Amino acid sequence: MPPPPAELAAYVAACSDGDPVALYIEHGAALAERLVSHFPDDLDLDGRRVLDFGCGSGRFLRHLVNAGTGATFEGADIDAACIDWLSEHLPAPHTAFRNKPTPPLDRPDGHYALIYATSVFSHLTDTWAAWLCELHRLLCDDGVLVASVIDEAGGPDFGEDPWEEGRIGMLVLGPGRPWVAGGPMVLHSEWWIRAHWGRAFDVLAFHPGRRTVFGQAVVVMRKAAAGASPTPELLERLEPGEPREVSALIHALRRATEEHVVLNTRHDEYSRAYSAEATRRTELEAENAELRLRLAKSTAELAAAGRAPQAALILMRALGGRARMLGRGCRQFFESAG
User: Mind listing the pLDDT tens digit for each residue in 110-121?
Assistant: First the structure.
């Protein structure tokens, strides 16, 4: 596959500095190798289908389609530009398709043997449970889900240093933040993942993000034994007898209040800035009006000055004509008198 355009490569936060295409390829290769190392040893993908959920412009796909697994890869993403580019350049039989922000995906039950989602659940706020249930539906029996989440390793970047397991469950920061500003960020603790995600999957491993190329924790899960399909309500329900649920909710409320205070402060700053700009606009409009008057006056004076030489020439011609008439009259007088 050729490298994607720089603007698509730069969608990946880790590749936003320096040469985005070079970082996209080099970092993607290291991440893909690390991702594969987390696959269960008994996972056989030969002749089976794999979904890259949140594939972007194929940072992982470009490496995994050539990894010799024998699998057919599909990529899904909400970004039209990424999917358009992948659809043009992803080699057959591998494909990519665009998904909506909410489930379902247009694929049948049990369609995939493996689904991986990197840097996806680190941004999902209200739809995380619905998407987990959808990925559960899409996996075949004993299918594997591998997902990355922001854990303790990312805590210092988001004001959680030191990291305290008792106050972090699923912590949402910046809900509603636009994607051009990085989108919302979601932090997870291992106990919370095991408690909530474990209702739909058997959590095989939780690999912490500290000192790894991912910088995020990697959660490896297998679809739980056949039974009732999980619901979002089931996954969202508080874990009975777990006191950290309450302390995490209290901390989440505290962080939300802090964000609200910051937003209000910025709102006041913006209001003052807008007021100052409005005053300055009024002043500039008055200055512009004065300048327009002066310009009109100067234009009139310039036009008058431009007409003055012509008027003088006409007057001189008129006086010259009168002088000639007087000269002729004088000659005629003296001639008649002589």
Answer: 999 999 999 999
